[in-house]
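For the sake of transparency, this paper describes our internal protein records without simplification. An entry from our holdings is shown next, in its original layout:
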Amino acid sequence: MTGLRHQTQIALGFVPLLDASPLIVAQAKGFALKEGLDLRLLREMSWAALRDRISIGHIDAAHMPAPLPIATTLGLGSLPVELETPIGLATGGNAITVSEELWRHMRDAGAPEVAGDPIACGQALKRVLEACQKQPARPLVFGVVHPFSSHNYELRHWLSAGSIEPDRDVQITILPPPFMVDALEAGRIDGYCVGEPWNSLARKHGSGRIVTTKNRLWPGIIEKVLAMRSGAVDADVTRRLITAITRAAEWCDDVNHREELADLLSQQDYMALPPPCLMPGLTGELMLGDAPPSLEPDFLRFGGSATVPLPSQALWLYAQMLRWQQTSFSPQDAERAAAVYRPNLWCEATGLALPQPFSITTFDDVHFDPGQIQTWLAQYAACVE
């Protein structure tokens, strides 16, 4: 029998969000132990702190927004550190929430009481902004969790599809996920894009309303990944870690485990919130706008295709960095971005064939071909050099 002293210990950082569940469950439910691993889970409040800790070697691996390992490898926003992503942790799980006051204005401007439709809600916000231009007022402020996060790109995409220029018509600021609700309640921001449970918590507190969700904006797009420094973890250990996380993700997706999962995540070392605050995101039963709870299909998924780190999705995220002028295009950087996602490691660990890349089509019916990034980019005139 293998004792704890014979196990391989891995220091693994996470931010308190529901999409960290596979890592927490891998340790708590024994999936890591079965693979001879001891996951030392370390909670951080911000993605910047987590990125810095993995970059300088304080931790071995980390829960990360899907674009961040790509940006870090390319040296965008930080010193360049070669990271790799051997497994995805979740798809979906994000939402856009606005303050109660802004929601009232949006509803008066035509937003449906049963929110969720990103087009209708974006058009209503545009009408609110047009009305605000007629009288002096500070710009609306929206929070996102990191410049190189899907949250930033999803919010910007939603705004721009409603003819709102993100860098002109509103302000976008960076806040750690657990601080979003407090900032909204204090009136420091008017809305945000963040992962659960920090949208449902604002609704529960009566300080915000959810207007749309990631599964409506970017269906099927990877949201969180496991990031590791290239070569820092032994190949066999990496395979065993992928196996443990894959099994934990399947356990998390089982509807029969939701209450147990909420109880586990509620512990002080993880989410530190009561289970009822966590259940909406786990079940997908969200309160959108003025509506009572209703099911958002595929709101948050952990297992299956959510675990596969496809290079096509890495290129989608690299394309967002180009669109929002965080970098400029080069074939070499495109190759490096795609290479951050390592599906070969996933295939070796799971014994499964690599799935065919699915078609990436967003809520505004824009199709993305990863082999034609510059053609896709050309439709956004502000990004054309």
Observations:
- The longest strand covers residues 83-92.
- The mean pLDDT is 94.
- The chain has two domains: 4-93+221-286+298-378, 95-219.
- The radius of gyration is 20 Å.
